[in-house]
Predict the 3D structure of the following.
Amino acid sequence: MNDEMVSQDLSAAVVQPQGDLVAAKLTALRSELRKAVASGILHMILDLQGVRAVDSSGIGLLVSAHNSLEKAGGELTVIHASKDILELFHTMRIHQHFSVSGN
C-alpha cells in the first residue's frame, strides 16, 4: 500500500489513510481493505487522523468494508474523524451502522 499505514495482528487491523478518502485516491486503500478481510481480519479500526475530506466514493468504500466485515462476523470502527467528517457521517446516519468517533 502506498500512503496508508496498516498494522494488524491475527484478527484486528488499524488502517491510517494518509490522504483524503476521495475517488481519485481509493484504489490502493480498497485493495488493502479487501486483502485484510480476506486474510481473516474481523475488527478493523480506520483512523482518520490524516483525512480532511470524504466524498461519495469514500463513503461507499466504508459501507462496503462494514458490510464485508459484518458478513464475516466482524466490525468496522472509525476513529479520529474531523468535526466536518463527523458531521457528514451523522447527517448521512452512517454512525447507525458502525462506530464513529471524532478527534
Remarks:
- The longest helix spans residues 56-71.
- The chain has a mean pLDDT of 89.
